[in-house]
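Title: Prediction job returns without error message
Component: structure pipeline
Severity: low
Priority: P3
Assignee: unassigned

Description:
Job completed but the reporter wants confirmation the result is attached to the right record. Sequence as submitted:
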Amino acid sequence: MRPVEIKEGVFWLGAVDWNRRNFHGYSKAHKGTTYNNFLIVDEKVTLIDTVAEEFWGTLQCNIAQVLGDRKIDYVVANHLEPDHAGCLAKVVEKYQPEKIFTSPMGQKAMKAHFKYEDWPVEVTPTGTELSIGKRTLSFLETRMLHWPDSMLTYCPEEKLVFSNDAFGQNWATSERWADEVDRYRLEELMANYYANIVLPYSPVVLKTLATIKEMGLEIETICPDHGLMFRGDDCAWAIEKYLEFAEQKPKNKAVIVYDTMWHSTEKMAEAIACGLADEGVSVRLMCMKNNHHSDVMAEVFDAAAVIVGSPTHNNGILPLMADMLTYMKGLRPQNKIGSAVGSFGWSGECVKILTKWLEDMNMEVVEGIKNQYVPDHEVFNKCYEQGKAIAAAIKAKL
């Protein structure tokens, strides 16, 4: 895509990765993604972030279209992850900027990653202001949102924030602004990105939003490093959504995620789903053989209850459930009710193991159900009543 002037003298450059499906090696990006970076043409021409290394040609072309033969004076590195700093070394080599600005932890990451010796790096702790001519850039360190090096860059004259990964979505589009696309789809992709990337850092999100409010920053444009940008009233909408995401208030919804060998655990899970649905709880029944862990996590994100199921396998649980629980625990979901279900042939450890995972994630545990061999009507009734009991716990929690 060609450069887009988003404010007079401020350009979106970026690259649209239409074919990306594997995001960061662990999450699905069903709609592709974008790597947004920005160029401010002022007395000091300033580049904000870069793009993934494979789009180096695109970045050079976009810079040339805006600048012609004019040079880049400053580079701001808000984040050192390779999809945003993948071309940093090439930018330094080709354009030889006077200064590279980054956070205190960004300097450490830059040194470790690029092994440079003579780059003109300057550290910009929170509160640092940089004049680039008619405009000022100020920096706000957002350590662990979502890497230690993360920071935001704010331009008060344009009321514009370059937000790094915050407010991002994985969506390859020809549109650049949130007001040009379907709002429901946008919110869904924002939530999916948050659930799989930002969720563990929700306390940092809340702290950052509070700091921005205390500082009284006026924001008319938000430019994340992935997906659509926000302008006008959409900025308040995006901030409100992030506040909602970070608070992790559960909805009247349950997710049953399971794996099964000979369908006994699956049938028990279906009976629990019936009990939940008959009490008016929205239910997602997701088998790990047919769903990627990041898609499951997108559903778990706003659910009040998570029921996990697996038969006993080699004195443990099935591998796909171990993968799912490892992934879920790392993302640290909060405010959930948990329960377990599983069938077994002889040793029967599955529910005990699954329940331990739920306890380790600080979930309110409703005692699980296990059954030897094939469940009968009595077991199905027990599972159905289990669904109703979990529904009651959800209603008490909401």
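Comment from assignee: result matches the submitted record. The mean pLDDT is 97.
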